[in-house]
Structure prediction request, 856 residues.
Amino acid sequence: MEIGVGIIGLGTVGGSVYKVLAQNREKIEKEVGQPVKVKKVFDLNQSRYDELSVPEEQRALSAKEVLNRDDISIVVELIGNIEPARSIILESLKSGKSVVTANKELLALHGEELFTVAAESGVDLLFEASVGGGIPIIKPLKESLTGNRVREVMGIVNGTTNYILSRMSEEGCSFSDALKEAQEKGYAEADPSADVEGRDAASKIAILASIAFNSRILSTQVYCEGIRKITPQDIKYAKELGFVIKLLAVGKEENGLIDVRVHPALIPVTHPLASVEKVYNAIYVRGDVVGEVMFFGPGAGGMAAASSVVGDIIEIARNLKFGSLGRIGCTCFESKKVRPIEDLITRYYVLMEVLDRPGVLASIAGEFGKAQVSLASVIQKETFGERAELVFMTHKTIESSFRKALEAIKGLPVVNEVKNVIRVEGEE
Amino acid sequence: MEIGVGIIGLGTVGGSVYKVLAQNREKIEKEVGQPVKVKKVFDLNQSRYDELSVPEEQRALSAKEVLNRDDISIVVELIGNIEPARSIILESLKSGKSVVTANKELLALHGEELFTVAAESGVDLLFEASVGGGIPIIKPLKESLTGNRVREVMGIVNGTTNYILSRMSEEGCSFSDALKEAQEKGYAEADPSADVEGRDAASKIAILASIAFNSRILSTQVYCEGIRKITPQDIKYAKELGFVIKLLAVGKEENGLIDVRVHPALIPVTHPLASVEKVYNAIYVRGDVVGEVMFFGPGAGGMAAASSVVGDIIEIARNLKFGSLGRIGCTCFESKKVRPIEDLITRYYVLMEVLDRPGVLASIAGEFGKAQVSLASVIQKETFGERAELVFMTHKTIESSFRKALEAIKGLPVVNEVKNVIRVEGEE
Prediction:
């Protein structure tokens, strides 16, 4: 029996999936034991058909035409965004077709609805490419590591921002120069806000945390800070202290509460994530049985994502062959609360510019003390005439107390500016 | 329906599996949708029963007693070595029970026989823990990455030797001192030969290469060199040249031939494998679609391996639930030849001690030239009275030519000793 595939969306990823299914057709057929064949493709931009040399009989005039085919049992949705992707997926699932998607925004907002319909229809809804591009992470979390209670899933899941921070670290250049370079190289979009403000990473950690902690997390529940405020100075001071700065997507479970957030963080240079450079992604998982594991690879690019999409197609094809569709569905069988960011307990790096006068340090330290924020170290850096820079590292403290201290410190007449505040992650 | 498990072998891994199935029972039941319960365990050393507080009704008096139970559908073999493990697995499979094993030696020698019987009986034979301990690598290769034609699978798959090399690199200590320390810390066995001579890694790369290239490779087909000859000097010179020395297990496919070997190698400090330290393992995979991915984690230890074993148990339990046993069996559907080591094309590091005299370099370079071995760099190092040390890095050359040159060089009267020869891996 031939397994029929329809692809909706022939952009970078969709086009690559189309090519891979042709290029590795023979191998895939042997792995599955049955041929896997593209029956119809659809893209609003019909010039893609020519670019990919799609034969006439595979060209659809509408998404509907793909969904209506009885010989298609797997629909691949690669158009992104919420609508019409959501409707296309729902209609596919309802008509008994399994779906492969890379649509992180949709899954992180409407996952529950989609997985419920998939389960009711007894079909598969797979999404390996939605997080980490070509890195196998969804399947390992849902399968190989299922014997673990996951304590922590933490990753560099946005290639654009990792490229920018890597360049800032290597070259000492500013955020805006690094962003410009990333745009020139095609690593950042013309409007980079979803990447640099952390919203892309927020969708991804919502998906990872939902699986890791067996409880649905929406992207809107993820605390989110971007990297626009990071300066070469921060990176330099962090390095002196033995840290690198990365945009981290963090999910942790502590006492039944889920801590889920995206923000720049200082991580120790010895942490496995510290050496992940450029557009590479990596996801670090800590489980109660396995300890620490990490998955590393290309987080973006059409071919990388196609590797994951084709892996999902093969998975469904195997289920079709064995009559085991729906074998692994949604695993959000718990209902855990998200811990507000104010309750986070962590260490902080604080860079401030103060007046270079006697007693300044004492008054700042006094404010930290009043709020019960204990200091691990303080370094006075370069002095510019009347002004000095102070770098504080706190001990672990609760964020609400830290914020209180910070507000008081900002009000001190000797403090010119609190230049940056960055959380610390990945320490023992 | 309850899913019954029998465990044969309650050593470090078996004992951990027993504990994890109890400790995470509730989570596993929710993931599978059915309870997974240990029915019987067996170990020759009956004191293990007390150590693990195994209740009377679970204690078997023989392996046979486990195999004979009708309520056991998954047999976990964790005794290691060839016999009686082979017979136990064969009998289990023939009686329709699925098997989970971590037995790399057995799989790398008798894999074909075992997988044939598993397929005939329509059951699963899973072995995630056989390579890389707790790192998910078998399943990602057989599933997530199946859309790729794998070009290369390369890893640090032996924690003992990686610990030794890490310590030699950090402390500048000798192989024997580092080995002694590893033994004291429980990272090396009293008889460390299977680890330090590379045979453990050879079994593992045989398994990985068989999956990656869809063609059965036996451990006896793996060219194998250990790390006993590596000195702190080699590590120091490598560092100066921008490399680290690791015991690598390498599998590559080129022109339909499989290159599979275990030996110490110089890898560039920038390679993802270079920063894998201590007892950690990592497996790097290069596919034609995904590019480079790497899997990192604990390569040894009872709990790490138990994470993989329990993952496999859950996989089989899901197949039992969906009637899809045998869903993914042996994928060695090709029959590719192994390339002899003499045909390897690579770069070499050569350290030799020579007489410190005019014309020495010319005569050595002359011998390399005669054998068509081109030199990339040569460094003259510390001179001790009459003697000097020369470090050569060759360009890519065929191993047979290189060996010819080396034999001729060893015969030169000005050459006291060729101290070490190490291949270079992981360059572009």
